[in-house]
Specification:
alpha/beta, Rossmann fold, six-stranded parallel beta sheet, 20 strands, 40% helix, globular, binds adenosine-5'-diphosphate, binds magnesium ion
């Protein structure tokens, strides 16, 4: 079945071992790779222009008979070859530089199809500087002119002409290709069949051929991806977990809800019910909780962990940084202590003797809730009976880490939380295997943060604002940018600024310093003092970006704000506005680029995370938006998740329906599809977050 696609390219006529090796540079190994090596653009050379109508400067395709050749050497190392051509309307010259062999290749009498740039500036002659040329026997067979010509991405040693000619040989095999996308789906969206689409992509008869072929391959790419994810989602739901929870809120969950200093919001209650249902079902939960910064996800995670304890199981919470793990521990522990639940904190800076005790208590089940950094997914950590796992700020973790944590128990229930609002199309791409819950509204009484963009010249006004707030008993952050390439320099900038502010501008206040190169204990001490209010102004690098929760802070100053992406700026802004007082976010920046200016404007104009995420995705593209390396975002050949978002929705819908009917793709009519899917995603399913 479609075995031709897996044959090495060398199988094709015209491809020797050397060229086959060169083509590997553009990822072409098999005939299939070649056929899926799509043109980057097309040139319409359908119209053959008569000699007398050629206009200076235009790129045109002409057809003429060779009359004679001429060779000119105006200076050393430059040879100009001119062929005089006659097309029945007039005589013109095709011109090549340093390609003497042309004279032999196209002797007088040859019919030549030439595409090139028209130059009439030389002695009134009509010259054509040749871009592409071929001897035209049968015009139907013409590859490089007289048709819509594909222009391919190339590598050194592989020319357009070469790739077109071997593509032609590959296309001869295409008629026998079997379709693998179900007919019904193709018919529904009026997509061409595989063989026709391949033909249309490489050898279009008209522009619509290209359009239809592209539609098909975009759909195909998205459909295979969605199918892989739908299968994985289904697979998780097919295996029963061996732990279970009594239905409803258990006594500890009830007690937690009753002891809260606030009423949970309607959204918090709604998502809790969605989550509870997952937990009570016989199949493991695999859910994403999205909620803007400050929307109250921590309470939801606490409910999950406590429900596990209610059922005699253990819970675990993983956070991306030590500061955040520590803060979760402090925050959650306060609630857990009153409930009589035993928690522990495990990070890489926990001392050895203490670590051993914690590991032992976790193993024996004495620790009921373990909170920590990725230290908790190391092999030596063993749980007695892990029931539920919460991963905070999922975007900071790789998919591998999520899977590692999942493997700690026997199919534990997993809730991943993120405050980076992800536009729906992107979510469908990277989290397609997860169910999604969203907290849309913030707890009541919050005043939206007022955001201003100022230039560095206005820094003294910014300091005045800080002074005013601190005098009212509030606190402030000043964030210095951190660029990975030179962490030391950036840390130095923060150190210097703190020093300078302590000695002059803010002599009368307490200025703290926090950066990634400090020891864990030092960081803890600083955060502790900031939480208590002993530190008034905290100068920091972006280590405070995620999750830090000090409701008394009302000013966030971000220096060189144009160096941050929108998502990150929004996260930083989310550190203030967490209490009842009016808060301020000041972006200090002199953006040079248009994009930088747009980002500043977007921040000033919107406090809505989803809105900003859409904007960020538009401005930076999906790769930058997520940081491809850690995101598990697949690389697309032809689809574009922003442009093709509707195709993505359709592909997802079809994939879900298909997997519902035939979870293992075992029906005979799906056998080829299963094979294609396996070849594409089967081998590296974990890396890709799918499979
Ligand atoms: P995030 O979703 O960013 O993790 P948090 O869980 O840290 O948000 O919550 C932000 C702040 O809002 C915390 O100080 C928390 O105690 C408070 N909070 C959470 N839920 C409510 C609520 N329903 N009413 C009032 N305050 C709440
Ligand atoms: Mg949080």
């Amino acid at each position: 079945m479609n075995d031709i696609l897996n044959k090495p390219v060398q199988y094709l006529k015209g491809v020797g071992p050397k060229r086959a090796r060169t083509m590997q540079n553009i990822n072409i190994y098999t005939v299939g790779d070649l056929l899926y090596h799509f043109p980057r653009e097309y040139q319409d050379r359908t119209n053959i222009i008569p000699a007398q109508s050629l206009k200076h400067g235009q790129v045109a395709t002409v057809l003429g008979r060779v009359l004679y050749a001429r060779e000119i050497t105006p200076r050393q190392r430059l040879t100009i070859v001119k062929l005089a051509l006659d097309d029945g309307h007039g005589v013109f010259f095709a011109v090549w530089f340093n390609q003497k062999y042309i004279i032999k290749q196209y002797p007088p009498g040859t019919m030549l199809l030439v595409t090139g740039k028209v130059d009439k500036s030389y002695r009134g002659e009509t010259q054509i500087q040749v871009i592409d040329c071929e001897a035209a026997g049968d015009p139907d067979q013409a590859l490089h002119g007289g048709r819509i010509v594909p222009i391919y991405p190339l590598t050194e040693g592989i020319s357009q002409k070469y790739i077109r000619s071997i593509m032609q040989n590959a296309l001869k095999e295409v008629a026998s290709l079997q379709e693998f996308i179900p007919e019904k789906i193709l018919a529904k969206y009026r997509l061409p069949k595989l063989a026709d689409a391949v033909q249309g992509m490489h050898y279009p008869k008209c522009k619509d051929d290209i359009h239809q072929a592209k539609r098909r391959f975009i759909f195909e790419e998205l459909f295979l991806l969605q199918l892989a994810m739908a299968k994985r989602r289904k697979k998780i739901k097919l295996e029963e977990k061996d732990h279970h929870y009594p239905p409803g809120n258990g006594p500890l969950v009830e007690e937690l809800l009753n002891s809260l200093p606030f009423d949970p919001t309607a959204d918090q209650i709604r998502v809790w019910h969605e989550i509870r249902q997952d937990m009570e079902s016989p199949y493991p939960m695999n859910r994403l909780l999205q909620g803007d910064v400050g929307s109250g996800k921590t309470l939801v995670s606490a409910l999950v962990l406590v429900k596990a304890v209610d059922a005699g199981l253990q819970g675990a919470l993983m956070a991306p940084t030590e500061i955040l793990a520590e803060q979760h521990y402090l925050g959650l522990n306060r609630w857990m202590e009153t409930l009589g639940i035993k928690t522990a904190l495990l990070t890489s800076s926990v001392k050895k003797s203490q670590r051993e005790k914690i590991l032992n208590d976790v193993k024996e089940g004495k620790v009921q809730i373990l909170i920590g950094t990725h230290a908790i997914i190391q092999d030596i950590v063993e749980f007695k009976r892990l029931g539920a796992v919460v991963v905070d700020e999922q975007h900071r973790f790789g998919v591998k880490q999520r899977l590692a944590l999942q493997s700690k128990g026997n199919l534990p229930d997993v809730l991943v939380m993120t405050a980076t609002p992800i536009p729906r199309t992107l979510a469908l791409t990277i989290y397609g295997d997860l169910d999604v819950s969203v907290i849309y509204t913030l707890p009541p009484g919050r005043k939206p943060v007022r955001t201003y963009h100022v230039t560095h010249r206005a820094i003294n006004d910014v300091y005045k604002l800080i002074r005013r707030e601190v005098q009212k008993g509030k606190q402030a952050y000043i964030v210095c940018p951190l660029v990975e390439e030179s962490e030391i320099l950036d840390v130095q900038a923060a150190v210097d600024l703190a020093q300078q502010l302590r000695e002059s501008t803010f002599k009368d206040f307490n200025v703290g310093l926090l950066h990634g190169r400090m020891k864990a204990e030092e960081k803890e001490k600083v955060m502790d003092e900031y939480r208590k209010g002993t530190i008034d102004i905290l100068v920091s690098t972006t280590v405070i970006e995620v999750g830090v929760d000090v409701p008394n802070a009302t000013v966030m100053v971000i220096l060189d704000a144009n160096r941050f992406g929108l998502a990150q700026l929004h996260q930083l802004r989310g550190r203030v506005g967490r209490g009842r007082s009016q808060s301020y976010c000041i972006l200090v920046a002199d953006p040079k680029t248009e994009e930088g200016k747009q980002r500043m404007a977007a921040m000033v104009n919107s406090t809505d995370g989803f809105n900003l995420a859409e904007e960020d995705l538009r401005l930076r593209g999906p790769g930058e938006f997520l940081g491809v390396r850690q995101s598990g975002l697949p690389e697309f050949k032809i689809a574009d998740i922003i442009r093709d978002r509707r195709a993505m929705e359709c592909a997802r819908q079809e994939a879900l329906e298909l997997v519902e009917k035939d979870p293992g793709l075992q029906l005979p009519e799906h056998r080829l599809l299963a094979k294609v899917l396996y070849e594409k995603y089967g081998k590296n399913e974990k890396l890709l977050n799918i499979g």
